[in-house]
Amino acid sequence: MSHPDAYREIDRSADPAALVASLETRGRDTAQRRLRLRFLRAIPVRRRDTVLEVGCGTGVILRDLVPLVRRGGRVAGIDPSRAVLAAARRFCRGTGVSVRDGDGTRVPFKDDGFDVTLAITVLLHVADPLAVVREVARVTRPGGRVAVQDQDFGTVALAHPDRALTDRILDGVVNHVYEEPYSGRRLPALLHAAGLARVRLRTDVYQETALTPYMQAFLQRRAENAVRFGIVATEDASRWLDGIDGLARAGTFVYTVNYYGAVGVKP
Description:
Layout: H1 16-28, H2 30-42, E1 50-54, H3 60-69, E2 74-79, H4 82-91, E3 98-101, E4 114-120, H5 129-138, E5 140-158, H6 163-177, H7 187-193, E6 197-208, H8 213-228, H9 234-250, E7 255-265
Parallel strand pairs: 1-2, 1-4, 2-3, 4-5
Antiparallel strand pairs: 5-7, 6-7
Helix pairs in contact: 1-8, 2-3, 6-8, 8-9
């Protein structure tokens, strides 16, 4: 049986193509793109840097990195999923980005090879996040930056007329899917435990006040999973989605969640 977190084992999921499409939908979301670029600039990623992204998915962030490193820089990504790597190669064609198969606990690069290493919205999905951070640090040069970012589902705020049902669905699904739903707030401790220095934290709020395609797909998946995991009945999930649609039509939809980004320097 596949893991309840479909993004942990994309190739074993019921529909890998749908997960690939969802990553690209999120990548095109305006608020998500603003959030990503704020973090990349805060790391910072500089001109001519060599950058590795662990868990690169379809290459959304790899494509963001290209104009930051510019000519003379190098951008590489690894991911264990064949489906997303095929998409990344397609979407990154002509950019100079390189991608290859690789697991975050066994990064296929030599020690001290990159100026910046990234794991963005990845640690939430892995079984041993400290092992990944240690391995990411290994391939970072002394004085280089290790940067990790995750959302923290303990900070979700969603306007809805039925607050109790909303809590049952949102809390129930994340507690079923993720080993640590409050992943974002643990990131500084992970960097310290991996031996990184000068650790700093950046908090950004992802905010939507409209039911964008990404937001609509995200909430639809939450409702479907709540039914699949036996958290609510089908009619309750439909009523919950109807309440969201009503708020969107009235112009009063609100969804926010904190994203925590931690950056450390390899001694």
